[in-house]
Amino acid sequence: MHMNIIVVKNYEEASQKAFEIIKSLVIEKPDANLGLATGSTPIRLYELMCEDHRVNKTSYKDVNTFNLDEYYGLKHDHPQSYYHFMHEHLFKHIDIKKENVHIPIGEGHIEEDCKRYNQLLSNNKRDIQLLGLGSNGHIGFNEPGTSFDTSTHYIALKESTIKDNAALFFNGDLDAVPKSAITMGIHNIMESKHILLIACGKRKAEAVKGMIEGEVTEELPASILQRHPHVTVIIDEEAASLLTK
Ligand SMILES: N[C@@H]1[C@@H](O)[C@H](O)[C@@H](COP(=O)(O)O)O[C@@H]1O
User: Fold this and answer.
1) CB of 48 within 8 A of CB of 92?
2) Active-site annotation holds for 143
3) Strands 128-131 and 33-36
4) What gap in Å lies between CA 199 and CA 214, rounded to an integer?
5) Which of 12, 130, 152, 240 could crosslink 114 through cysteines, CB 3.0-4.6 Å?
């Protein structure tokens, strides 16, 4: 097993650690391909990147980014679209070029767009893929039961995911959360040279245990990371609390 597991005290330390990894990659390789994620977890990391860009002038002008997923049916300017999230939390604060930003399109011709995104991904291998972790073990929006062979696809969200995201982003309003999404598949995620997963808090402890100590199963999508040659997992004490080894 090639997982490098880093246990830190809390969310702030986890974000700092992840930031160090991303920053040193961008400095070493100014035209790096970054696979990016949304959700509540990377928010502090993105803040640190913006601050560092402002203060230390770390440049993203030759960086390309590829986001994991997008809700289906939200317009770009919807405040909860991932497109909007990424612009607000990261892109508008750094010197990345608009044309270097890639996010799946969550409306219109699904099949064509998935095909186009897959082509883009296979032409641009990611140097690093940032991941959060769903409380049910999903990565991107690859819900439990998704085949490990998938590339970018349309997926119906599980009840638990709708609930989690309602609580975090939609003021608890289940009806406001889109019921489906477009996501990079497990196959696309596994193509990245390095995978960096951050998980914090008690509600992730079960999934973290399965991901690291459980069997590799499509019922817990993140468990596939055990088969990747270069994975860094950053977890806080709460998320690590059920680990036995
Ligand atoms: N599609 C996203 C994932 O990319 C994210 O990693 C996960 C965890 O979210 P959070 O970081 O808010 O716990 O759930 C969301 O549904």
Assistant:
1) no
2) yes
3) parallel
4) 16
5) 152
67, 38 contact by CB (below 8 A): yes
| ipTM exceeding cut-off 0.85 for this assembly | yes
- CA-to-CA distance for 195 and 192, rounded, in angstroms? 6
Q: What is the CATH number of domain 3-194+205-236?
A: 3.40.50.1360
Distance 26 CA to ligand 1 centre (A): 24
| Average pLDDT score over the chain | 97
Rounded to 5°, angle at Cα 154 from 149 and 156: 105
Containing 52, the helix (H) or strand (E) segment is helix 43-56
Q: How far apart are CA 14 and CA 18, in angstroms?
A: 6
Environment class of 96 (CB within 10 Å of its CB; exposed 0-12, middle 13-18, buried 19+): buried
Q: What is the DSSP letter of 139?
A: B
Give the active site residue among 33, 64, 67, 69.
Answer: 69
pLDDT of residue 108: 86
φ/ψ of 101, rounded to 5, equals: -95, 130
What whole-number distance in Å separates Cα of residue 245 and Cα of residue 242?
A: 9
Please report which confidence band the pLDDT of residue 245 belongs to, taking 50, 70 and 90 as the band edges.
Answer: confident
Q: What is the pTM of this model?
A: 0.97
Atom of ligand 1 nearest to the CA of 40: 12
Binding-site residues, ligand 1, Cβ < 6 A: 37-41, 68-69, 132-134, 140-141, 161, 165, 168
